[in-house]
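fyi for ur records
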Amino acid sequence: MRILGIDFGDRHIGLAVSDGLRLTAQPVGTYRIKAREEDNKRYFLDLVEKYEVGEIVLGYPLRMDGSAGTRAQKTQEFADWLKSVVGRPIILWDERLTTREAKNILQSQKIKRKNQKDLEDQVSAAIILSSYLEQKNYNSHGPAGH
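which gave:
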């Protein structure tokens, strides 16, 4: 089973999935939230089935001091909704500074500014998922060479 990484926003949701071994994360697109809830449900059910998703890592936007604000509350509500729809475990993962990191990556790749926004959410989702995978693999195998 793969892991789905999500960067949740008010209108757009960045998406990334792990490989089958759960070692790497690849961006797979951006979803634009629809007005009809049924459309959103169908999309996420199809996505989970298509990629054989076993769990979901959702970027959790904490403030720099570690506290949760209104953005974190909206993310928690989305997590509850998503879990009720797809029936998979949802892991909330600290996403502080991932958007800045995504912007830096895209700028370093010399991607045109107008195209960067389209990719930013996907790259953020991949960064969130990658950091989760690294921590999970580190904890299960210990530091390299040990």
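The mean pLDDT is 89. thats all i got for now
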